[in-house]
């Protein structure tokens, strides 16, 4: 096996360990699955029906042009089909986009602690990551822009709303950032959580601007993480570039059918957004009951500040996982003082409410000193 | 948009135009869909049931380790899970494998007229294709081996049974080829059609041999082309290398569930293989009725020799498409004297039986001279 020098230099790595691997290690399934920002409220019943109907037709390859899905997405956003590139989730689209723009040595800008799968793709194509720290638990567009200018990067990544913190920037700040970027630098605006974002935080689409490509997904509010469909929105030249390297038959017939039906069901989307809002409030209340602070969120998850350092939060996370609550947390300091809890059903959050005080107690005991005093001091 | 020099050098291309695009151009759907070697007999009812059940759970990401599917495939083949890498169809797996082994300038060996999507991936990563011609309408392992030796290629592609000709090599010739390959050269043995292959044409699995990686799919005999699941079988080190660059969450929960159920339903597979055999015989009979020769096939399609040159076969192909029969054909001479017709239902083949004489007549007229005399002369 003669790996390329680049491939040989890469570790075998996994951006995220799946909850299933943790369940196999624990020997028990999770009681509440709140770690991957999935939509526990499920897909639209109409999307389920469409997938079920398509299942019998799964002997057919999906349309490699995804014509109908593309047209539906274009109509939904008021753009042309050539502004839309559907793909296998934002993960898949990011991989293709990075492949198009990143060669060994290419500088790429992102935030320290932002989406690890983007970094995985950049590293996988030999790019060199330059990272700006978060500011006030949010991505810092001015720092990213400065870093893009300084490094000459052709590509900058920013998620709005942000993952893992749940914070968001105003549409105005995003627009200012775009205006300030070097003219030949492309901003990937990852809007996986845009469906949950408050008014005024999602800039108007301007597909005539070649400096921005926006990523949307059916994995979050649409509840179709396990179907693998997302799409990019952008300038026709950027969108057409995907055709140079993409896996044309990668989006199957079941995926295309499910996504189309999900997109059309706006009532379901609204009901999910409402239930996510309730869940966020409940997570905030549970945090407060335990002396913790929930950070404001524009997403379907809440970063809960555990009030001490990363080691303490990691101990809390372990405690939650041991008690059957799948959660994740930010990777870098100081954001790693938080655990990240996805919106759950009322039943899921009952489990959280039961497990969190125990996990805090255990973490406090492990770290020495009672959790109460520690938390009060935070 | 600052594409990498490699990406900038690539054309926007599609290895295959989908039948849906042709249907949109025609303004009518095809009466018989016999061009993509899909399984018109559909997936196992058990696979359909599994996909339908999984549809409601599509809010969950699929297990990134695909643990259960991998274990089931391993058990089926009598190998270990670390010999198995599931992925998004053979197309997806080929892309990942090429990425691992091919850098700009890397020589890669395949047959002229073999699978275009493999070539697309090689070109897409900057590799340089070296092609051996077919011999007697089959891939030529000795010529491929010689070319691998001559070019120092780290990668050789061979499909057995072959697409687009339907021909096959004996297990013995494949084994001899492997033995004759340079020790550091990897053979991709594309066995997409292995489920249809006659006894003695599929070599025994030897996953201790690092020189071979075998590709299997759920898209053909299992009737799940629109679900996007295939797998690689090989040495643990080669299999583990996929973890360096693969899209870990790319195989969704619906795909994993459908594939597992399909793999378990051996009765369905046997019934499909039997019906494909009947369809091949019927295609042979229809060809003979029209004075044409069907080539022997070890697959779910038949290459029908139209008895003249590529221009004539292309005219026949056009005639079939105009009459609502979706078919494809080999791209290079002299194999392009054939049209490639996938196994159809009896109803599909009734449509073919009706359309073929008309298409031949039209092609003969277009080419000047009656088709009968032309065919008699072939």
Automatic annotation (TrEMBL), chains A, B:
<dbReference type="InterPro" id="IPR015424">
    <property type="entry name" value="PyrdxlP-dep_Trfase"/>
</dbReference>
<dbReference type="Pfam" id="PF00155">
    <property type="entry name" value="Aminotran_1_2"/>
</dbReference>
<keyword id="KW-0032">Aminotransferase</keyword>
<keyword id="KW-0808">Transferase</keyword>
<protein>
    <submittedName>
        <fullName>Pyridoxal phosphate-dependent aminotransferase</fullName>
    </submittedName>
</protein>
<feature type="domain" description="Aminotransferase class I/classII large">
    <location>
        <begin position="34"/>
        <end position="356"/>
    </location>
</feature>
<dbReference type="InterPro" id="IPR015422">
    <property type="entry name" value="PyrdxlP-dep_Trfase_small"/>
</dbReference>
<dbReference type="GO" id="GO:0030170">
    <property type="term" value="F:pyridoxal phosphate binding"/>
</dbReference>
<comment type="similarity">
    <text>Belongs to the class-II pyridoxal-phosphate-dependent aminotransferase family. Histidinol-phosphate aminotransferase subfamily.</text>
</comment>
<dbReference type="InterPro" id="IPR004839">
    <property type="entry name" value="Aminotransferase_I/II_large"/>
</dbReference>
<dbReference type="InterPro" id="IPR015421">
    <property type="entry name" value="PyrdxlP-dep_Trfase_major"/>
</dbReference>
<comment type="pathway">
    <text>Amino-acid biosynthesis.</text>
</comment>
<keyword id="KW-0663">Pyridoxal phosphate</keyword>
<dbReference type="InterPro" id="IPR050106">
    <property type="entry name" value="HistidinolP_aminotransfase"/>
</dbReference>
<dbReference type="GO" id="GO:0008483">
    <property type="term" value="F:transaminase activity"/>
</dbReference>
């Amino acid at each position: 096996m003669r790996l390329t020098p680049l491939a040989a230099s890469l570790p075998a790595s996994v951006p995220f360990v799946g909850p299933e691997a943790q369940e196999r290690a624990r020997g028990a399934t999770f009681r509440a699955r709140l770690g991957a920002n999935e939509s526990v409220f499920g897909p639209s019943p109409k999307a389920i029906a469409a997938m079920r109907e398509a299942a019998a037709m799964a002997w057919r390859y999906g349309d490699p042009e995804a014509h109908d899905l593309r047209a539906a997405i274009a109509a939904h956003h008021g753009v042309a089909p050539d502004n839309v590139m559907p793909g296998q989730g934002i993960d898949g689209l990011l991989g293709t986009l990075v492949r198009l723009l990143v060669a060994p040595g290419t500088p790429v800008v992102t935030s320290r602690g932002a989406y690890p799968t983007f970094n995985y793709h950049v590293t996988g194509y030999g790019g060199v990551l330059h990272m700006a720290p978060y500011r006030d638990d949010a991505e810092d567009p001015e720092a990213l822009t400065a870093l893009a200018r300084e490094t000459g990067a052709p590509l900058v990544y920013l998620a709005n709303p942000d993952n893992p913190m749940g914070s968001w920037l105003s549409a105005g700040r995003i627009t200012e950032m775009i205006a300030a970027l070097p003219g030949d630098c492309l901003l990937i605006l990852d809007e996986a959580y845009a469906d949950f974002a408050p008014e005024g935080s999602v800039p108007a689409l301007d597909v005539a601007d070649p400096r921005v490509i926006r990523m949307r997904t059916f994995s979050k509010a649409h509840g179709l993480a396990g179907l693998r469909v997302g799409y990019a929105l952008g300038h026709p030249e950027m969108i057409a570039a995907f055709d140079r390297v993409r896996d044309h038959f990668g989006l199957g017939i079941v995926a295309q059918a499910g996504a189309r039906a999900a997109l059309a069901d706006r009532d379901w989307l609204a009901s999910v957004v409402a239930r996510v809002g309730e869940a966020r409030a409940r997570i905030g209340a549970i945090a407060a009951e335990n002396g913790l602070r929930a950070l404001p969120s524009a997403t379907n998850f809440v970063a809960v500040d555990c009030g001490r350092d990363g080691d303490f939060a990691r101990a809390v996370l372990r405690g939650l996982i041991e008690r059957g609550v799948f959660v994740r947390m930010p990777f870098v300091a100081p954001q790693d003082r938080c655990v990240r809890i996805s919106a759950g059903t009322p039943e899921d959050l009952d489990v959280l409410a039961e497990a969190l005080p125990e996990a805090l107690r255990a973490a406090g005991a492990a770290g020495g000193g009672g959790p109460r005093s520690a938390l009060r001091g935070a």
